[in-house]
Amino acid sequence: MRRALATSLAAVVLVISAGAAHAEPARPVAWVPCPDNPDGECGTLNVPLDWKKPWGPRIDLAIARHRATDPARRLGVLVVDPGGPGGSAAEFALSGLFSPEVRARFDIVGIDQRGTGGSLAIRCADLMPGGPSTHPRDEAGFTALLRHNQNVLAQCRERSGPIFDHADGASVAQDMDAARRALGERKISYFGLSYGTTFGQVYAEKFGRNLRAMVLDSVVDHSVDLGRFVGDRGAASDDALREFEKWCAGTTSCVLHGQDVRAAWEAALVRADGEPGGRQRLLDDMYFALRGPEWEYAADLITGRTGLRAQAFEPNYESVRLASVCQDFSLRIRNFREYERLRAEELRRSPIMRGSFLGHDEATACIGVPGPPANPPHRLDLSDAPKILVINARYDPTTPHAWAVDIQRQAPRNAALLTYEGWGHIAYPRSACTRGGVDDYLIDLEVPAVSCPAVPR
Q1: DSSP conformational letter for 113
Q2: Cis peptide before 85 (omega within 30 of 0)
Q3: DSSP 266-318
Q4: Nearest to residue 257, comparing CAs of 303, 289, 211, 290?
Q5: How far apart are CA 234 and CA 253, in angstroms?
Q6: Buried-exposed string 253-287: b where 16+ CB fall within 10 A, e elsewhere
Q7: 3-state DSSP: the chain helix, strand, coil percent, rounded to 5?
Q8: Which of 127, 192, 278, 408 could form a disulfide with 417 if both were Cys (CB 3.0 to 4.6 A apart)?
Q9: What are the tens digits of pLDDT across the range 39-64?
Q10: Is the dihedral of CA 425, 427, 429, 430 positive or negative?
């Protein structure tokens, strides 16, 4: 007997199974027109809450697709995920990112990751304001942060229900394969951006034989430990700021042209110290400016010609990362002494940007999460997968180019690396070369050249 807790796309159904002795076959998706996009079809994908107990409670995940516009030349299904975590893959599947040729040849399908969008969204961001600094200076500051995090975790878990403990990347990969079966496909292709590359790596390890092709754009290396998770991002942030310095030196329209940009940056940090929390807000804003990149805005930040602006990721990123990132990586800082060592190494690798906004923030958000991660990082084994295309900008402060290199190094026979020799986060839409290389790979399975030149700004 099953009890439906909700029936609409936005409210995902939690169903209590009668306790079948084995996992049920994937149920076909009942497609209906999407209410806010006439070109799309929407539905729900019914899966077990806990893939280790497939006979137990079940949930419905929001799913959407854009059918191939040239059915006679259709190549199959392209499952996509925008990353975050927290972005809606169902909405992303109906977006205009992909080229007309990709849209012609593939049914583009997006499944809202567990805990996001229409898949039992975890929403706990209101529990987080007012907490202590995520840069504790002493044992008391670390203890205060630990207790605050533990309180947030307890309340968020209670509010969210059982989905909170079943939103890791391994569960998402199982959901993706359930979608493949529900769609009646022998193989699927996959395109993951940013954190969506984590799900892609797990899928390639678990279900590599079910892959036709896979693109990992701006890759989050699922093999890195805590030190590299933070330190590599810090080093990449400094590299990105050095690129901004070069741009100012060679661009007369930069308001800092002809000046010592590094000295101006240090002076801006000192000025920001005059406001409570001002230095950290300036560092955070500079990170986002480099991530764009928005170099004119970065110059205005340094000169004070513009005010600091509130920055944000996906709507429920801060909430779902507790259930996702903290379970996909070993971000367990146990005490202040361990934090001090981590912070010292972060600053050694990133003396200009004072570390990584994102890496540091995610690592400290996971302080107090109990037990080992459900989907721990490890050396990748992609031996069952076809050739995977990894693409990354060389100067990306969010997902360092070093991580893309590391993926290719771990799986030299199963991974090819395409480097965009430019700046910013997400490489595919940067140039005709990056778009063409990815499109040719997806459509014809042709591995592109190893490098795309930067597009002058």
Answers
A1: P
A2: yes
A3: HHHHHHHTTSTTHHHHHHHHHHHHHHTT-HHHHHHHHHTSS-------STTHH
A4: 303
A5: 28
A6: ebebeeeebeebbeebeeebeeeeeebebbbbbbb
A7: 40, 15, 40
A8: 408
A9: 899 999 999 999 999 999 999 999 99
A10: positive
If residue 235 lies in a helix (H) or strand (E), which one and from where to where?
A: helix 226-250
Instruction: List the beta bridge partners of residue 423.
Output: 395
pLDDT at 38: 85
Rg for the chain (alpha carbons), in Å?
22
Output the pLDDT for position 196.
98
Report CA-CA distances (Å) from 194 to 19, 82, 105, 256, 279. 37, 7, 24, 32, 27
The reported pLDDT for the residue numbered 1 is 32
C-alpha distance across the termini of the chain, in Å: 61
Spell out, as residue ranges, where the chain has pLDDT lower than 70: 1-25, 310-313
DSSP letter at 72 equals G
Q: Is the preceding omega at residue 136 within 30 degrees of 0, hence cis? A: no
Contact 429, 396 (CB under 8 A): no
Residues belonging to the chain: 457
DSSP assignment letter at 162: G
Cα–Cα distance measured from residue 140 to residue 146, given in angstroms and rounded to the nearest whole number: 10
Cα(192)–Cα(214) distance, rounded to whole angstroms? Answer: 8
CA separation for the pair 296, 278 (Å, rounded): 20
Residue 10's pLDDT is 36
